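Annotated sample (chain length 137).
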Amino acid sequence: METRLKANEEGWKRVDREINDLGAAYSTVASKVDSTEKLLKAMSTKHDNYMLEMNGKNESIVAMLAKMSMSRDKQVEGSMSKDKQVEGLHVGLAEGSVLGGGGRFGGENRTGRNGNDTRLNHKLPKIDFPQFWGENP
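Output written by the structure step:
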């Protein structure tokens, strides 16, 4: 019986040691979990701050692009109106030469809707051609 009591005592001591070892392991794991949790919270906070900063920059970039787009649209509209003016000038010249019948350099006066002379008044340069008398030079 004494041997049996001794064996039981040793068994209980072994169980106590294992429980103590498990308790130490648990406290070690718990402290690691706590430190990991703190680290994750800090990283999450840092991530949130970065996201707020990036959202602010994104909004400023979108606003800047919108301004650039608006100014480019205005430039394109201005360019298109200039192109239309030039095109209208070309069409007006073409209509004047076709409808006048006598060509651009005709002797008749052409008057527009408001009574003004629509003929272009440009002085052309004089061109001197050498005279050819039928002999080889």
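Annotation: Helices lie at 2-100.
Annotation: Residues 31 and 37 are 10 Å apart (CA to CA).
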